[in-house]
Design goal:
single chain; alpha/beta; Spore Coat Polysaccharide Biosynthesis Protein SpsA, Chain A; 3 domains; six-stranded mixed beta sheet; 15 helices
């Protein structure tokens, strides 16, 4: 049945077309050229990346945490560190390459239609796709705010509740519905604003469709799917008899951990073993990597443990213009970590931004290869959480455990001061089996004008005598597994034991009154994200004047004497 209606020609030319195709899959290239021609489109080919093209983990991680995904796919169970196959990593890099092309365009440029070479297209695809694009752009009229993705085909795990349905202009029988979680990234339309947002989150911490879905789930990216759908994969799982098998001719293995009730073909288990042990995994008779749609996925049961090559513990922080706190963070944690195991996420607002003065000196304390520059013009707590979670996940591919603390947060181990302090505590943690530890939080309070201003040449607690409990800083920061934090990292989804006497967080946020005021005034001038303003996030960083003074004086608990052990623990900071 045709859905054609008279539409302006410009509508039908409202997107650019790129398709991803492995070098050796000439059969698929020819099929995709024919499909595009039949639809009245000319697609530009991108030679698919392979696992060999993925260098290091700066763009694509090596393992992924399937916990969130397993909540939607009930046939699977969670695993904190599944080793991604070479095919998954090559697939992700192929998509990232096209995201970069899209992101380089101005906000009002035509969006990009990204196709994998196994995508089938419906009748009147071009017209219907153009109508969906036009409807999306009418619904999001400001180009810079089109932080959206239009999936023209997908396996929808859950629709987002309480959201609007967008009618498609070219057909009364079609509509767009907002989605919460989905699989398959074989046919989707991406706008420049959304492409830039996705690139800010690199490295990808999961297979590309799972990673996008997790961003959608967190709410920083919106996604819609047409009903009925316009595209689907021409490959299907060979599981008609209830046994999962590798589809004939497929080029990619996709990892997952399945429930015991799921029967998997023995050959897939063999490929799983190779993949989870770090060998190159391929599909069919090939040991090749590249792109594949949902139909290409050989869904395999990841029973093997993460690589035993991981060892030790790393620490990291994220900072934007922190000339006072960052050098003290480094001075404190270098007593527990080798410099090679200390990492910094440097938040900049533009590619040409350069650190200056004491902040630049502090950055220079880190190994250059351990400093990652992340560009985001906004002060956005959702983005901060996403990049921190991604870095945590990436580091856990190489380390048994990771400690994350913001630049004004110093963790101490008061019961271990005579054994090596925090280093001794971490060694005991590594020797045990506990997955994560929650600390107990105290906030130092500058009693001005009785106490002098902070002297940066002296230990931070030399002239400070009071602190107070603050349960907001009872954070889970030392972990063996990725954590799913709330905004600000104050809470997490996981049930984590608190070590009330063994691990203490000393929060320096109010170590000096004038520093507190000037730091907050500077942050009030930052460009805060629209989402943060709309949702009332980070309001304490938008206060100024008398409201800021009142905020400083507000105490969540009575002041207490700072114990002697704390001044010993931070004596050199």
């Amino acid at each position: 049945m045709s859905h054609r209606k008279d539409r302006p020609a410009a509508v039908a030319e409202s997107f650019d077309v790129h398709y991803i195709n492995l070098k050796h899959r000439e059969d698929r290239r020819k099929a995709m050229v024919e499909r595009c021609a039949k639809a009245g489109m000319k697609g530009e080919r991108l030679e698919a990346k392979t696992g060999a093209d993925v260098v290091g983990d700066t763009e694509v991680g090596c393992t992924w945490d399937s916990t969130i995904n397993s909540r939607y796919d009930k046939s699977t169970v969670a695993h904190p560190a599944l080793r991604m196959s070479d095919g998954e990593r090559g697939c992700a890099l192929s998509h990232i390459t096209l995201w970069r092309r899209c992101a380089a365009q101005p906000d009002d440029a035509p969006p990009l239609l990204i196709l994998e070479d196994d995508a089938e297209l419906c009748e009147d695809f071009k017209l219907l796709c153009a109508g969906c694009v036009a409807s999306m752009q009418s619904h999001f009229p400001v180009p810079a705010e089109r932080n959206t993705v239009l999936f023209l085909g997908a396996r929808v795990a859950a629709w987002r509740l309480g959201t609007v349905v967008i009618p498609v202009e070219v057909s009364a029988t079609f509509m767009l519905r907002e989605v919460e979680y989905l699989w398959w990234a074989g046919c989707y339309v991406l706008w420049p604003a959304a492409a830039r947002h996705l690139l800010q989150l690199l490295p990808l911490w999961a297979p590309v469709d799972v990673a996008i879905s997790e961003v959608i789930l967190r709410g920083s990216l919106r996604a819609f799917v047409p009903i009925p759908m316009l595209s689907w994969s021409d490959n299907v799982h060979a599981d008609d008899d209830g046994v999962l098998r590798h589809p004939e001719g497929s080029d990619i293995l996709h990892t997952n951990r399945y429930a015991a009730s799921i029967t998997i073909d023995a050959s897939l288990q063999t490929q799983l073993d190779a993949c989870q042990q770090g060998a190159r995994g391929g599909g069919g008779s090939h040991h090749v990597d590249g792109v594949g749609g949902e139909g290409d996925r050989a869904i395999i049961n990841a029973r093997a443990a993460p690589s035993s090559a991981r060892s030790g513990c790393a620490c990291f922080t994220i900072a934007r213009d922190e000339p006072v706190y960052l050098p003290r963070w480094h001075a404190h944690y270098k007593r527990a970590f080798a410099n090679a195991d200390m990492y910094l996420l440097h938040h900049v607002v533009a590619a040409d931004e350069q650190a200056e003065g004491a902040f630049a000196d502090a950055i220079a304390l880190f190994d250059p290869g351990n400093v990652s520059r992340l560009i985001n013009a906004d002060f956005d707590p959702a983005w901060l959480r996403e990049v921190v979670v991604a870095k945590l996940t990436s580091l856990l591919e190489r380390y048994e455990a990771v400690l994350f603390a913001e630049s004004d947060e110093l963790l101490c181990a008061p019961l271990q001061l005579d054994k090596g302090g925090l280093r001794s505590y971490i060694d005991e943690f590594l020797a045990g089996s506990e997955p994560s530890i929650r600390c107990v939080g105290y906030e130092v309070h500058h009693e001005f004008p009785m106490e002098p201003p902070l002297n940066l040449d002296e230990p931070v607690l030399l002239h400070r005598n009071k602190w107070h409990r603050n349960i907001k800083y009872d954070k889970a920061l030392l972990t063996r597994h990725p954590l799913h934090w709330s905004l600000g990292f104050h809470e997490c989804d996981e049930d984590v034991r608190q070590d009330e006497k063994g691990l203490v967080l000393v929060h320096l946020h109010k170590i000096d009154f004038q520093l507190y005021i000037s730091r907050h005034e500077a942050r009030a001038r930052y460009k805060h994200s629209d989402e943060a303003i709309k949702n009332g996030w980070n309001t304490h960083y938008r206060s100024s004047g008398p409201a800021l003074m009142a905020q400083y004086m507000s105490l969540p608990a009575p002041l207490e004497e700072i114990p002697a052990w704390a001044k010993v623990a931070l004596g050199g900071v």
